[in-house]
Fold this sequence. Notes:
Blueprint: H1 6-17, H2 26-33, H3 39-65, H4 67-75, E1 80-81, E2 88-89, E3 115-116, H5 119-141, H6 163-174
Amino acid sequence: MEFITPEEVADYVMLELQGRPTGKDIVAALDASTEGPTYRAGVLRRNAIGRLKALAEAAWRLLTTDAALRQQIISVELPIVAPDGKTVYRGNIVVVPPETGGGRDPLSAAPRGWVDLRPEQFGVGIKRAGAMLQEAEARQAGPQTSGSDVAWNAIEPDDPIEPSRFATWVFTVEDKGTRIKR
Length: 182
């Protein structure tokens, strides 16, 4: 959205402090970046939020109208949390049960593996996708290898989103679920 990252500012500052010419006026850049958001960024943000809300509504509409899909999700013991956060579809067994006792919120388990359609949870997927993309770009920029350290399930920047590869990435990176020899 036409922003400069803190890392980019830090790189330029370090180069300037080392006496290397950057062609960038750091003082002017810092001044410009602290003056507030632009109108364009505000419009883009509003449009992005509107699209996310439409996606959350479309996902809920799909689950409420497609009984087979809903049943398939519940049959693998995953509860479905409605966008209102009050309605939960589930079977007799829940693979990631909520923690009980002590007045704990039963929905506290939802981010650990439930199909959570609350709008605030959609940001988690967006952050994951961003991390996947950064990892893919770093891998492409680095040395190419054909050894045993190649990430065979890695997602490349131009690859389509495939749920199985997305899940593999989450298990491998977030859950640190790489296979080790015992």
